[in-house]
């Protein structure tokens, strides 16, 4: 089987990690008899600065026939963040109905968590973040700029379809894992959207009697994520809360540079997209020292989605073995001094 993969490296360290990791993914897949053909798209902030848009008008049409999309990151010091996010990533996740943002947080052996007392495997949970609506819906407006009566409105949108398409895969995962699911909301303050969400969780939970549902408010959940991360298993959260919780996840797994992410179209009608959790990292871009492993793990999740489990496992286990090896090269964010390229090359030597 050969898969056609669209590659959008994007900006800053997004470029650096994708350039280092793409050849590794191709060669590891090939070693398992799986073909991966890539088409690169130079979309991102440089295109915006040159031509006024991060991607062409028919961008989604160009991507639609691919089996999956590999994204680096977008974000540029000279372009406002809301322009970059809304110019590329959000049109793809919304347009291709990628309702499910599944983000595992796993503390690998050989990586130091900033939390005391946790060892490899102790932290092992997965956040299912609603990825197409909620607080990131493009509904709102501004009036009377600069005047005393200035007002800005940013509405949240929660639909039955968008919520249910996130919850079902999360309950499936909980059922296969420990049978525990934590529902994170703010339904005390957000009495419309989050109470609706809670009711949806209750409704869907009736189809999964083996899954025990725990409810937490997002403020308490954030505190618990640093106090008792080992007690979480599957977490469901809205777009904004899931975004925030998964950066905490990246932090407690030792580095945001290790955290993988997926944007899954659960119906399989459009391609799904895979990317590290991190952004373009202005503070280290151009230095060649970004950790490429979050992107490798995202590649693993891409092959898992394509049902190429041998490739997915080889990549995941390869990263785990490299991190567990104290003599292996590692980047500065996890206590080493190696370059992005050296880490990817070492992984290549181990796996191919
Ligand atoms: P960031 O994730 O880029 O960086 C946060 C911190 O983590 C920085 O100190 C950075 O050096 C470090 N870091 C991140 N990835 C790393 C890696 N692979 N290796 C080593 N260290 C790493 O978040 P930010 O600084 O808030 O945002 C920078 C830009 O990225 C902004 O324009 C933002 O909008 C954008 N962004 C894009 C995405 C995306 O494309 N999906 C996600 C988050 C942020
Ligand atoms: Mn984020």
Automatic annotation (TrEMBL):
Q: Which InterPro entries match?
A: ICDH/IPMDH (IPR050501), IsoCit/isopropylmalate_DH_CS (IPR019818), IsoPropMal-DH-like_dom (IPR024084)
Cofactor section: Mn(2+); Mg(2+)
Q: Which Pfam families match?
A: Iso_dh
Give GO MF terms, alphabetically.
Answer: magnesium ion binding; NAD binding; oxidoreductase activity, acting on the CH-OH group of donors, NAD or NADP as acceptor
The segment(s) forming the Isopropylmalate dehydrogenase-like domain are 4-347
May I ask which residue range the UniProt record assigns to the signal sequence? none
Q: Which SUPFAM superfamilies match?
A: Isocitrate/Isopropylmalate dehydrogenase-like
Keywords (A to Z) from UniProt: Manganese, Metal-binding, NAD, Oxidoreductase
Protein name (database record): Tartrate dehydrogenase
Which species is listed as the source? Haloplanus aerogenes
